[in-house]
Amino acid sequence: MKASPQHIELRSSPHYRAPDTVDVIMRNVVYALLPVCVFAVYLFGLSALALLVVCVAVCVGTEHLFCVWAGKRSTVGDWSVVITGLLLALTLPPAFPLWMAAVSAFFGVAVGKIFFGGLGYNVMNPALVGRAFAQAAFTLPMTTWSPPRAPGRFTEFIPSTLTRPFMEPVSIDQWLDRVVPDGFAGATPLALMKFAQTPTDLMPLMVGTIPGCAGETSALLIFICGLYLIFRKMMDGRITFSILLTAFLLSGLFYWVNPDVYPDPLFTLFSGGLMLGAVFMATDMVASPETRLGVWVYGILIGVLVVIIRLFGGLPEGVMYAILLGNAASPLISRVTQPRIYGAAGKKRKKKENNAS
Amino acid sequence: MVMTGVLTQLNPAHILRRSFSHGIHPPENKQYTENKPIERFAFPPELYLLLSQHAGKPSVPIVKPGQEVVRGEPIARADGFVSVPLHAPATGVIKRIDLVPTAKGPRKPAIILKVYPGETQQVLYGAPRDVDRMTPQEIIEAVQEAGLVGLGGAAFPTHVKLSPPPGDQVDTILINGCECEPYLTTDHRIMIEQADDLVRGTQILMRVMGAERAVIGTEDNKMEAARALRKALPDDGRITVKVVKTKYPQGAEKMLAKALVNREIPSGKYPSSVGLGVYNVATTAQIGELLPWRRGVIERVVTVTGPGVGKPGNYLVPIGTPIGFILERLGYHGSARYLITGGPMMGDTVSSLDVPITKGCGGFLVMRPEDLAVHQMEDAYPCISCGKCVEACPMHLNPCHLGKLAAKRRYLDMDAYHLFDCFECGCCAYVCPAGIPLVQYFRVSKVMNREMKAAAK
Questions:
Q1: pLDDT at A261
Q2: Which residues, at least 6 apart from B118, have a Cβ–Cβ distance to it below 8 Å?
């Protein structure tokens, strides 16, 4: 009897594929965000934890429900919506009422992602869409800050966290008097800088023991977590680098012109949400350009916008709008920065050929 | 294995080596066969000699059923300039001329040769001659007469590559020993074992093309080959061996030109337009081996490997040997499912055990489902515009955008994004984390694009 395999199958080349799939990449981004989350919980306690849990749960639930409603297989398995949930929670003030966080999370995923067609089709980063919604709808709680490392933060919530749904946030003044008896400025370093021209020391800025959004405070930690992703080739370090460099240089220029009015460039780099935005938000693969040159244009655009909004805008912080604008511009950036293909006639040779003919 | 990979990456000699830009690093898997010397393979009872195993017009048979042929005798003639003759790989009798399955799928006409069992199979055909006394034109004719085609896989008739368009002056010959496909070690072994033939072939090529120098290019995972070649080089210094960084698809003509001499071959032009002639090491070694004896291509080195085969190795296989016979002789794993001619990046799976080895086939891979399991995905995710394909494409195309256009069936719009510069190396589909079959899309797109243009006329 002639030997032969039982049956042979056909497939078309390439028969090999790299092991990093979308869910692996997204899962690793979640891993990279975990230290930032842990630090947020350390700083702000139960309230930050509840914020994280609620945002992730609502984001995942929203995507799942919409998939079920559309009669499609649920896409929550790709882990991208978990990132959205975590990022949204990390960019909200720790004392943010949970019901408002839930509404923002729903809005971010539903309008920012699902309405466009889900993963891969969203124009903007869904977490930032959610945050922009919160900023517009809930202005007061979005600027109510709580002190880091408040005593008793692991045993009790900040009062406003547990505000009943559709109610005005509970005032936290009483709680503040209790936990910080010698008075709490109630402003972020950026706001202090903008409205009082009071700079904050660099060390607490980098380590993160300052008031601010739940996960944006420790620039250093965020940066280290980003390095992990860059090392695993799961994040585009060029975007982070170009944003930070542009922001540094441009704010450095203003500081050089008038150091009395403008903050020094290191302050710009480590304050507010710039690090979180540059590392985890602007690098959202879907909403950033895919071409080599485009990535730099995108990064520089965001860097410039951040500095312009911070220094000349009405808001102390401009990272969110800068990234959203960058997101909106990225298809156009991709389009005008198509790579020069191998063997394409350069300008020089084209000229020569034209002259010859 | 991972550790050695990291060590190579950190080796300063490796870091300083040149390469082309972009490309990928798939697992090499050459350890199964790279140290196995070339071994002569048995003759099968029947050989299937496809009339079209080269690019160009099929050969025309000059034998009739029932006719006896000796090993090395021509059995089909070239049909015009872009075509080559065929030679009998074994002494035997012509059974019939019939359709046989091919690696690409469709059945094509072939001469079926019944091999005489017990025959010594010595090559009696041919006569020695002094190549150094032949004029370039005579050598070009002799190369066609020998049935030589690009043995690296493209199977383009070699004598056509030796006749560049008028006006193109070739100053440098590149000999392609990169063999960037995972698993394959054919060229690697030829460089080690046939270094002298290779050098002689290179010298012949230089003389024909009037080139002052030649560069034999290989990758730094084949240092043994580089050492063997350097030993065999003549003292005049016109031929050099250059080692470049291991990367896929370095063996592609255009990438090689960039890596070795930093020249870009313009889109749609021959290498000769930038003064280059590019030839594969196996082809060059065959020129050096066959021309002085006036013989034709009757066998070739094939790496038979993959986790599914019993005795992997590098074998000198008669052209026309059905792959079923190779499997039978070497044994295979019970769950072998995929039979791939060529490498895992660009090779074709075959649908029949009767598919014969052709001149362009340097590898035969036997894979089990579990070997490809880590490389498979059940469902594709949507494109997340991560740009990994853009960073991988050696042609610097934008596969991400091309893929979106293909998915929307906007085939004609793909021209603006240089669809036809894609040579289907598979880098984009390899890196795509969403598992989008980009290369497969582009194959369909090219066909549809041509059809739509033809229909519009």
A1: 85
A2: none
> Is residue A93 in some structural domain?
yes
Q: What's the domain count of chain A?
A: 1
Full-model pTM: 0.90
Q: Which residues of B touch A236 (CB under 8 A)?
A: 386-387
| Residues A342, B339: C-beta atoms closer than 8 Å | no
In a domain, A231, yes or no: no
Query: What range defines the domain where residue A27 resides?
Result: 21-144+146-185
Per the domain annotation, does A88 fall within a domain? yes
- For residue A5, which of B372, B335, B309 has the smallest C-alpha distance? B335
Q: Is there a domain that residue A82 lies in?
A: yes
Reference B73, options B111, B102, B107, B129; nearest CA is: B111
CA distances from A156 to A45, A175, A183, B49 (A): 8, 11, 20, 83
Which residue does chain A place closest to B264, by CA atoms? A343
Chain B CA closest to residue A334: B401
DSSP A278: I
Whether B420 and chain A come into contact, CB under 8 Å, resolves to no
- What are chain B's domains? 2-37+131-293 (3.40.50.11540), 388-456 (no CATH)
b/e sequence B247-261, b meaning 16+ C-beta within 10 Å: bbbbbbbbbbbbbbb
Distance from CA of A331 to the nearest CA of B (A): 10
Interface of A with B in 274-293 (CB under 8 A): 285-292
pLDDT in tens, A112-163: 999 999 999 999 999 999 999 999 999 999 988 988 888 888 998 998 998 8
Taking only the tens place, the pLDDT of each residue in A5-59 is 668 888 888 998 888 889 999 999 999 999 999 999 999 999 999 999 999 999 9
Q: Taking CB atoms and an 8 Å limit, are A20 and B351 in contact across chains? A: no
Within 8 A of B258 by CB-CB distance, chain A residues are 342
Query: Cβ contact (<8 Å) for A10 and B353?
Result: no
Q: Write the ipTM.
A: 0.87
Taking only the tens place, the pLDDT of each residue in B357-401 is 999 999 999 998 888 877 777 678 899 999 999 999 999 999 999
Over residues B247-275, mean pLDDT: 93
Q: Is A171 part of the contact surface with chain B (CB cutoff 8 Å)?
A: no
Output the DSSP codes for A24-38: HHHHHHHHHHHHHHH
